[in-house]
Sequence to fold (463 residues):
Amino acid sequence: MNAPEHDDPFGRDLARMAGDLTPVVDGAAMAGQAIRREKRRHMAVTVAACVAGMVAISAAIGAGGIVYADRQEPLPASTVTATPSPDGAERHDEPVRHELTYTHPEIGEIRHGVPAGWTEATTEGFRYAYPPRWTERPNDQRTFGEMVEIRSDEVVVRVPGYEDPEVRWNGYVESGDPGPNFWPGWVNTGLDGTHEIEVPGADYAVAQVTEGPFYADGRRRSLSVNVHVHQEGEGNHAKVVLNWPGGEDGKRLLREFLGTLSYEAGPRR
Amino acid sequence: MSASAADAVTGSMPVVVGRDLTREAQFTAFAQARTADLVRIAYFLCGDPHRAHDLAQTALERTFRHWHKVADGDPFAYARRVLATARIDTWRRTRKEVLTDDDALVWRSADTAPASDDEIAERDRLVRALAKLTAKQRRVVVLRYLLDRSEAETAATLRVSAGTVKSTASRALAILREELGADGLGGSGREGRS
Fold:
């Protein structure tokens, strides 16, 4: 900080009143969120550019059809036609229209246990399970503990030209950093869509659920979920971030997933 | 909590931006060191702890987006400018709301000791006085007097002329004198009160 240039004593009084108090914030967690959001934004922009390009190509094909094939019906200029992918990933037949509305759905009753066929996993003592055919892999974007990514077998949409063009439903599970619970100073529980949930072995568990347009495919709705958990007895902290399908099926899947969370060792309740 | 995590929470970790680190690692080191300062600035600008948190988050995202351009310069200055020019129109809250919402943030002194009641009371009195200013006046006061930026730096950050900074500051200080003067500034501030 520069030395004060102003010589107005009143200005110095203001600086003194402001003091040197700084808020307790988790800079690493906020950095992680910034990185993830920026990557999502980048992907959304890429998808939008691809769609715009396809619209333009479609329009050109339509115009060309009028000129060079007057016996054929030109393609409607407003139609987007993407090449079907070999694995059956969804193709775009309509222009993407993002419905920019966000809601905070109730998640309903959570029943503890692992649904049949789900795969159980543990990260730094934090237990969870993911649906059949989903996979798990380490992730190096951790901010305070060990982090893994879980991802669906379903390819939701393809984004050509990207290093990993297959966009799937996914989630990040991070656990570690034992000690007194620091989440209450970080998590804003005054936000809509905030639910206190019960997690066995935890003395703090808050889920925040928002349903809105899926960043990679505006025709779909998706659930954005943040879960913050603290293990009882000054244990580990855990954070779960989900990019999850929306609708009733998504909420059912979320309920089942939240029911698998636990910091308890031994057999499941 | 581990020592490293405590550093991350208080934002006291020094900036370690090694060229051999990934872009994400460089940015995370920067954020660990400076996010608390960004939230503090945002709080003085908007007077709402939740909004301050959101503004700081936005500043971090914009900084990361342009990291390839700002990393070798002064990324904190870039982030500060994002804050200073952001929309802060959620300011219009009642005094009660400001005080109630403030519970959402925990504040510490520079020596990491918990903030005393007196420190918080003085800070809050200033925040309420700043609420009487326009957004433009508040930006100037925060940069010029709370962050000790020069007139030229303040003008460059806000992309206005130095004359505009001077005149805006003059009007803002007059309002603040009126707001704060009646109760006195207390402590060492009394001698400087005009």
Notes: The CA atoms of residues 181 and 189 of chain B lie 10 Å apart. Residues 3-101+114-185 of chain B form one domain. Residues 1-19, 89-103, 187-194 of chain B have pLDDT under 50 and may be disordered.
